[in-house]
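Q: Sequence in, structure out?
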Amino acid sequence: MQNAFWVFGYGSLMWRPGFSYEEAQPATLRGFSRSFCIYSHYYRGTPQRPGLVLGLDPHPGAECRGVAFRIADDQKDAVIAYLTERELCGYAYVAETLPLSLDCNTEINAYTFVADPNHALYAGDLGLEKAATLIMEAEGNTGLNRDYLINSVRELEAHGYADPHLHELLKKVEYLTGIIEAGAGI
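A: Exactly. Output:
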């Protein structure tokens, strides 16, 4: 298992990997947190009204729960090519191999995507108010940014993962949605 090629999913890769795998295991990445720290100008926003998407930011003492996928040896190159196109096309990620702890008490190394603070689309920590406002106002080619947040939180909960920061952001977006709908007479 140690020499196998693994991929770590912490966002949409958890529930929509888009590649074949031999097994999936719940896993923890230490020293990083999942956050809406990357501007989206295509899928969930536009250059005029950028949205936010999930990224991994380093934070000492943090833990990010996700899913580790073990890839067949003969599929490694194809999976890397697919992920490169999916995750590195226009977004502020850097591919890295990082140590993970599987829930079965096994330590592995996994290929994943970490936010690149030097990239122009890296937003960092914008704070609750600004992040919620951006998410509320953004829509891209794949839909509303707030739907991405809602679906991400629901999927994380379905996997049994609580992420207090994302729940707080969702509560703020739900509040703002209520204000908008109240003003529209709904």
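The chain has a mean pLDDT of 92.
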